[in-house]
Amino acid sequence: MTIAAITVLCSRVLSVNAITAGFAYLLGVLAIATAWGLIEAIVASVAAMLCFNFFFLPPIGQFTIADPQNWVALFAFLATALIASHISDRERKQALEAKARQKETEQLYALSRIILMTDPAQSIGFQSAQHIAEIFDCPAVALYDAKSGEIFRGGAEDLPDVEGQLKQVVMQSGNLRDSAGHAVVAPIILGGQPIGSLALKSLSLSDGALRALLNLVAIALERVRTEEAANRAEAARQSEEFKSTLLDAIAHEFKTPLTSIKAASTSMLSDPSPLSPEFRELATIIDEETDRMSLLVTEAVRMSQIDAGKVRLERELLDVGDLLRRVLTHFESKAEGRELKLQVDASVPAVYADKDLISLALRQLIDNALKYSPPGSPIGVTAGLKDHRVIIRVQDRGPGIPERERERVFDKFYRRQTTKTHVPGTGLGLYIAREIARAHGGDVWVEGEPGAGSEFCVALPLLDPEKTGP
């Protein structure tokens, strides 16, 4: 129609010469290429050449050319029309692609904003599937979360029998298309590992846009998981703080009567009037056990504070030998005839540590050794210097700990199946000892062979008091 209109206008209405008609035809071909495409422009170029020959090149009214120069002009016109059509069509396609990329960018931006404002109280998978269907005008969306095993759907239509493809893509980490080619199924990758998959029906996206969409979905899923983990951690922290606060209050209530009992027993023992041997023995027992109970209450509070992460180290220079001797004195009445051997190398320097906490950690290890050692067997405590660290070892002759359980014994509340029925304990002592050592920049571990006893080792770094805060 365009070529016919140009022919009528140039030959009947305006009666222009051949050169003007040629330019008119060329403009028409360019307009057709821009509006419709290359195929239409080629057809228009051939039609324009024929009309140019028939109506404007002599002999007019015939498909012949008398002057050879007109042949050159005719083919130059055809070549120009075809090349111009091709260039115009390419620019048109590039413009359409640029428009499509802009639309994809706008859609991805809209999705990213919605994901940031997603309500964590509702299912993130369901919300993501719905938002993708709405923003990208996708008739059907299926989102598979590999962690929960759930499939969330969005859009007005459905993707039948897509469950197997979603799970297959997670296993293979490669894109799939259904037999009709109407849907694409792609893995959702985070940190190099597939965490789910996404199926989209009748949605044409560039590879870059599809990858960006999958990354946004991965971020949404991981954001919710991170928030859930943070909420669980916060709930656990609040529980530990509540337990610590409650234990502080209970300890305060215990210490008031303990102080009164201690004052009474001390007064009885220091009274100048003589006491019968029976009463003096009873008063001594009351005085010693009051000290022991007061120490147990203090240790329980410190353990709770450590567990809640509320401990502040009060460091000071400590002589390791004096420290170990004071700790062992606490166990003289509990040794039940066992020998408590102490050996400290002369090369061991003073350590910069919290006296109360380190004493508590050592008491846990020695108490553990006493519980698991056979009656009459000695308990050895040694201290030496190795690799710029002070190593304190607590040795017993108990049943030992298998290799596979040596890390687990430091877990909170963990107790070995073979001993928990006949050995008293809470499963917190070793955990507390390791946490105290690590708070000082050291560590606790266990050595020894099963059947030959255990050796719990405490490593404390040599720290400079002037460079280490409390």
What's the short version?
With 470 residues, this protein is an alpha+beta fold.
Q: Features of this protein?
A:
rod-shaped, Beta-Lactamase, 5-stranded antiparallel β-sheet, 470 residues, 12 strands, alpha+beta, 5-stranded mixed β-sheet, Helix Hairpins
Structure, described:
It is built from eleven helices and twelve strands. It is 54% helix and 15% strand. It has 470 residues and is of the alpha+beta class. The protein has four domains: 2-103; 120-204, GAF domain (Beta-Lactamase); 232-307, Helix Hairpins, CATH 1.10.287; 315-461, Heat Shock Protein 90 (2-Layer Sandwich).
Give the SSE map.
Blueprint: H1 2-13, H2 18-35, H3 38-56, H4 68-116, H5 124-135, E1 140-145, E2 150-154, H6 163-172, E3 176-177, E4 183-190, E5 193-201, H7 207-270, H8 277-307, E6 315-318, H9 320-329, E7 340-344, E8 351-354, H10 355-372, E9 379-386, E10 389-395, H11 429-439, E11 443-447, E12 455-461
Parallel strand pairs: 7-9
Antiparallel strand pairs: 1-2, 1-5, 3-4, 4-5, 6-8, 9-10, 10-12, 11-12
Helix pairs in contact: 1-2, 1-3, 2-3, 2-4, 3-4, 4-5, 4-7, 7-8, 9-10, 10-11
